[in-house]
């Protein structure tokens, strides 16, 4: 059988239900759970997987005591299945919007630090110009939005590259910096302190982003430079909304984007501590998949993001002192510069 005949045979045998099963198996690594996810009986799912592997001519999964692990060729096949299924779903949604008189859709991944300012301005302008365009916003942290972009669940993203090799897969255009501040609730015993050292905060509860996020990596770097260990009393939370709720309900400390906490500070719910932190966090920007042109709505949205982005401010050069205090004048606190 030549290559062309093999390709035709594969196309004739594969169905989108097969792709759905592969994606479900990739997520669950369990036939029973995958069968439930696509609403078929387990015996049917097992037969479907056998048919798929027969069509490809190789095993996609190794079965062992830990469940199902994809083979090396299975990893490639699963990535294709996820892309194809996502593209079909997005095409069907877009077609339905247009059938009902809409103008298509745009799906954007975004870190929460960009949402209150840059993203909100760009989306508001886009919806003013194109009210029938369906806009979806997903994600909260850079590691989440990069994953969404990789899985083709968003057209583009606002965030940061999170590993050194991701530039091979994604393009990055820097847009703005994200000012980070340390915040506590207004009733926190530290809320009225004129001076606070980083070392003093280690005995308090903390709410921090997961270790894979750029902000958390920066936080751990700040602690290392100050000779401090990670706080023992720490809650990891990827959701900015949940973090804000936690801060308002007990005496915890968190490092968050100034744009996210601004309204909470103005409303008297949260207080920023007089300690500079996070100045070395790389700026965020537009993330796109390499070698894949953007659709017209996405290209237009990129233009709006560029219009509303602010130039990068000059980097601050004064580091945290060994004792944890910031070697900057009081007037140079993070909020004073905003």
UniProtKB/TrEMBL annotation:
TM ranges are none
Per the record, a Pfam family?
LysR_substrate
Residues annotated as domain HTH lysR-type: 14-71
PROSITE patterns referenced in this protein's UniProt entry, alphabetically = HTH_LYSR
Q: What family does this chain come from, according to its entry? A: Belongs to the LysR transcriptional regulatory family.
Specify the domain of life of the species encoding this protein.
Answer: Bacteria
Protein name in UniProt = DNA-binding transcriptional regulator, LysR family
GO terms for cellular component:
cytosol
Matching entries from InterPro entries are given as:
GbpR_PBP2, HTH-type_LysR_regulators, LysR_HTH_N, LysR_subst-bd, WH-like_DNA-bd_sf, WH_DNA-bd_sf
Give a GO molecular function annotation for the protein.
Answer: DNA binding
- Is DNA-binding among the key words of this record? yes
